[in-house]
Design a protein that fits this description.
Distance between the termini: 52 Å
Number of domains: 2
Number of helices: 11
Largest sheet: 4 strands, antiparallel
Shape: globular
Number of strands: 10
Strand content: 15-25%
């Protein structure tokens, strides 16, 4: 009888220890200021189990951007403690949240880095407060770009897409561009296609004005891309002359979106300046991709 009682006590003690650990980490709150909402949302830390599940999904679907994006989005939403429509947040919000969730993994630590010019090794720590301040400074107002050719004016309204819009765009791309992981040319084409699909998601609306107005055609046509399914958006974009999107020209739409949105999101992360030779180079985090799979 006493032996049975002793075993029961051991089992209960074991359960108590597990409960203590669960309660300890469930009580950690990470507040993140969401600029698009102008308020803070609260998150908890990502657990080892949750991260392992995401990492396995990412490894198993290395050439499926929509699957990885959905898995990472689901991970963030799962650790969100506040009530909010997560998919209606912007892509910039998502990156800002990820940055703060990754602080305890790689950010709040000292790191040894090496200058690529003089090879000096020294220790640094990312300035978390400074980076969060830079996120908050990014302008979230729409930008309107006008690009023209001999026949038309193309007026684009652009901003950071919602998570929902970007997810739908990547879903559409993945569904219509299946590839084999061992086909190098297909992988390269897929990488370029993903980049263009990502940029397309930033376009909120397109207006085309004809310079020479014919009697049988309207002077201008407008499409609200946020109100259309991803497939219809791509049909509209695909008929626009490639020269309007030309990424090699500073006047092309791709260059404008990169400069005013994507590059600005990446620029929040601090550059390092070598204390010996003065060379500047990316620090521990050079861009948003550097902490997604840390």
């Amino acid at each position: 009888m006493e032996q049975i009682k002793s075993e029961t006590i051991k089992q209960d003690t074991s359960n108590d220890v597990v409960s203590l650990f669960k309660n300890e980490f469930n009580s950690t709150v990470i507040p993140v200021y969401i600029k698009s909402l102008d308020k803070e949302l609260n998150f908890r830390e990502v657990s080892v189990r949750e991260y392992k599940t995401f990492a396995k999904t990412a490894i198993d679907n290395v050439n499926k951007p929509a699957t990885i994006y959905r898995a990472l989005t689901a991970l963030i939403e799962n650790v969100m403690l506040s009530k909010a429509d997560f998919a209606s947040l912007t892509e910039l919000d998502r990156v800002h949240i990820l940055f703060n969730l990754c602080q305890t993994i790689i950010l709040e630590q000292n790191h040894e880095i090496q200058c690529p010019m003089c090879q000096l090794k020294y220790v640094m720590r990312p300035n978390v407060d400074k980076i969060n301040e830079e996120f908050d400074k990014i302008d979230l107002t729409d930008k309107v770009y006008t690009v023209e050719d001999a026949n038309r004016l193309y007026i684009f309204t652009v901003n950071f897409p919602t998570i929902r819009r970007l997810m739908d765009t990547l879903d559409y791309f993945q569904k219509h561009n299946p590839i084999k992981s061992d086909d190098e040319s297909s992988v390269n084409a897929n990488t370029l296609g993903i980049a263009m699909a990502y940029i397309h998601a930033y376009i909120k609306s397109i207006t085309i004005e004809r310079k020479n107005k014919a009697n049988n055609k309207p002077g201008s046509i407008t499409a609200d891309l946020n109100a259309l399914p991803a497939g219809k958006v791509e049909e509209i974009i695909e008929v626009i002359p490639q020269s309007i999107f030309n990424s090699s020209s500073s006047n092309g739409l791709v260059s404008k979106i990169n400069a005013d949105f994507i590059d600005k999101a990446n620029s929040v992360f601090q550059k390092e300046k070598c204390p010996s030779c003065g060379a500047e180079f990316p620090g521990i985090i050079g861009s948003i991709s550097d902490f997604l799979f840390s």
